[in-house]
Amino acid sequence: MIKRKASGTILRHILLCGVFFIYIPLQGQNSLSEDTIRIKEVIISRKQISSDLPGFRKISIDTTLLKNYTNISLAELLALSSQVFIKSYGSGGSSTSSLRGTGASHTQVSWNGININNPMLGQTDFSLITSGLIDDVRISLGGASMETGNGGIGGIISLENNPDWSNRTSVMVNPDVGSFSRYVLLAGVKTGNDNFQSVTKAHVNYTENDFPYLNTEISSEPVLEKRENSQLSRKDFLQEFYLRKQDNDFSARIWYQSTDRNLPGSMLIQSGTQGEEQVDESIRSIFSFKSERGKTDYFVTGAWMHDRLDYSNPLASIESKNVSNSFTLKGGIETRILNSTKLRIFINNELNVIQSNNYENNVSRNTASITVIADKKSRNRFGSTIMIRETLDNTVLLIPDFSAGAEFRLFADEDHFLRSGFSRTSRVPSMNDRYWFPGGNEQLKNEYAFLYDLGYKMNQRLSPAISISSELGFFRNLIRDMIQWHPGEYTYWVADNLSRVNSTGFESSFSAAYSLNELSINLNAGYSFTRSVSAEAGTEEKIMNQLIYIPENQANGSLSTRYKNIYSVWTTIFTGRRYIVVDNSRHLPGYTVSNFIAGIKIPYKKHSFDVNFRIENVFNLSYQAIAHYPQPGRSYHISLLYKFINESN
Q1: Which CATH superfamily is domain 2-647 in?
Q2: In terms of pTM, does the model score above 0.85?
Q3: What span, in angstroms and rounded, lies between the C-alpha atoms of 441 and 633?
């Protein structure tokens, strides 16, 4: 018995020391919590598996970051706080995502459980989403994305709005002024009681984006120029209603968005030349009903998503007008079996109707699926998950997708876990892949992939004031029948199932928190390595090049401090080199960008004021995320957050 205890102690010390020396992506931590009540430590001797989906990795963006960065885009927030690589055309330009070395169309995005990817493009522009409109952001990697029924090969980013059932009324006004003629205002009102809640938010953003940059392309010597034709004007309005009575909940959410932006050309285009313009308008509405009956929950959700995208390029004589309407009906049940097993079954039907002058005819597509999820947590040591989804694409029944995962607690009553997952998931081609004229291909096959996941995670309290957590994971994605656009026999490009992609790498994270009396310090660090290579179908895999715009190395970190009502946050992001041609003969150099924010909170009776000063790109780095599209240098921003809260009796 003594030898067994000694060996177990030694193994725990080895694992604990090992995670300290792993340079490891940013995890959400409560670094600047506003309302903290400190209680004595409570020790629970028998704890269940902590994951809500054993065997798979899920990341939650810290709600504190959402509160302190309300007026930046979701693209900027994801780059600051997660492993998501953001491919950005610069301030005001479009921004798409890459998870684990996959493409933008392999990341699904849901809003309160409903898919909001543009059905024409099959992806989401994160530059159009304001962080302050969202209450919670979660990232499910790989096969974990099947949990919502909208599976993505890379993963899914879930955006949530949740009610606060407080019996009070609160008003929030948050103006923000910054460099390059940036003016932003976010305002909101929340009111209600234990049975009814109403949330109203409005957001406006106008930015000139006339930042100076070094043009290194037009001559042998860099030329200082100012970005032109880069103005952005965006408006958002979000209304939420929540009603609950006994065991029944009803919710209604409507989100209107309108963006008008000029898209400047690359640095290769002569300064002052009029470039492209794009207008995006969307209406997203979701109506949900949920009922609890004993151990079983029932839900029904209906949604209508309307998207309009008008794009013009006078130089190329392009005038593109596109309208899509998506109608979704989703319903299901969730029940517990024998107290340790949870079973979920839900059916999803989505109808897309497209009107575009880039299609020969108006087209539509109906996709229906049924998903079954079972997860079991046996006592406090073992957990497992099985997920199966069957999809009907119009009238074609697809090969089922599935995921299986397991998680094991290494030491009784201590939070050290091993996890492993395996998935087979697929992606239906976007409407543009099938119907764009010319070049679309209605005979395209679905992309499919086999995903492997292995990881370790731990949470440890070293003392009453110090706690640490860490996670290390390895993944391998084998994507087949990859859709690729390539030059055809004529003058235009065509879509085909040409490529196969192998993506391999590891992800790691480390967090440490210190809290004593009125002082709190939080350190987060992260690192990920991704090797994503492709080869055209039918060729030998002797030379495997890294996919363009997929960095092999990424790292990020933050240091947050708070003393009484004074706080500060320092964040740093490192992005490694990205190849910009298929043969990897040319690349963009890596870059490291740091940001800093400092502020003070001033409470006064029912009012509170939060004034902060923010510096972005502290060291004024000149860099490009996409070739020939410069990013802004150092910029300064001042923000005031005013809140009024009236508690009701």
Answers
A1: TonB-dependent receptor, beta-barrel domain (2.40.170.20)
A2: yes
A3: 42
